[in-house]
Amino acid sequence: MHVTAHKIPEFAPFGTGTVEVNGKIYMHSADGGLMPKELISDARLMEDQLVRTIIYFAEELSGQIDRFKGHTADDIGAFQALLVEKYEAPRKGGKKGNVTFLSFDGLMKVEVRLADNLSFGPELQTAKTLIDECINEWAADANAPIRLLVNRAFRVDQEGKIDRNAILGLRNVEILDERWQRAMDAITASIRVIGRKTYFRFGRRRTVEDAWENITIDLADAKAPQQEGGVS
User: Fold this and answer.
1) Contact, 114 vs 193, CB < 8 A?
2) DSSP 20-77
3) In a 3-state reduction of DSSP, which class is residue 83?
4) d(Cα 119, Cα 115) in Å, to the nearest integer?
5) Which DSSP helix (H) or strand (E) runs through 137?
């Protein structure tokens, strides 16, 4: 395995993590104590500086993204207000405020998407009881696919949350059983809108015949630059 060497900057943006006591340099340890710096290995000191440097740039980038999002929202809001004033008409957008802005050549776009943050009330447990009653009485060979959908919908993940989309998707299953219909009504009644979040999406294409390519801001989807060497 070959690892490309990267020079770690000489500075420690969040401080060196050191303290001077009686003319001797110590470093704060994770257990709350102090360790003489001279007793800490060079590798561990380099790792400490590496982390401090990366966190510094991560915080700086996060702040830039926050400011960019704020400026984007302000600019779009100002433009929509201008349209309202000019045409004396409702602001551009659909029922939920979704809207797309295009460059004149049609090669760049900015999308604004509003998504509701949903939660479920106590009616959801009533719906689950009715659904279980239906499945338990239906023939085993007939309810297997439905049971799989239900189990997937009500499965609790590691964060203690259920699959919201799967639960809402149950309402699209056409079943005439009156109890199932009441269960779907209970699911609908259980829906609580507890907030709304705005998403911005950015796209570009070379020609109007080409497919749109997203401009990535999410770090998880970012493409790392190609470098010679690296880890192999």
Assistant:
1) no
2) EETTEEEEE-TTS-EEEGGGS-HHHHHHHHHHHHHHHHHHHHHHHHHHHHHHHHHHHH
3) helix
4) 13
5) helix 123-137
Domain-by-domain residue ranges, the chain? 1-92, 94-232
Task: Report the pLDDT value the prediction gives residue 89, as an integer from 0 to 100.
Answer: 67
Compute how many other C-beta atoms are within 10 angstroms of the C-beta atom of residue 35: 14
Read off the amino acid at residue 91: R
**pLDDT score of 91:** 54
Q: What is the CA radius of gyration of the chain?
A: 28
CA separation for the pair 197, 99 (Å, rounded): 14
Label residue 223 by pLDDT band (50, 70, 90): low
DSSP state of 218: -
With CA atoms as reference, report the closest residue to 106 among 216, 206, 201.
206
DSSP state of 9: P
Residue whose pair of structure tokens reads 């189990």 in the numeric block: 151
> What does each C-alpha distance from 203 to 43, 80, 99, 180 come to in angstroms?
43, 20, 14, 43
Task: Return phi, psi of residue 47, to 5°.
Answer: -65, -40
pLDDT of 141 reads 63
List residues bridging with 170 in a β-sheet. none
Q: List the 24-28 sheet strands across, edge first.
A: 18-21, 24-28, 34-36
**Strand pairing of 18-21 and 24-28?**
antiparallel
Element (H, E) at 142: helix 140-154
Instruction: Write the single-letter amino acid at 230.
Output: G
* Average pLDDT in the chain: 82
Q: Which amino acid is at 96?
A: K
Per DSSP, the three-state class of 188 is helix
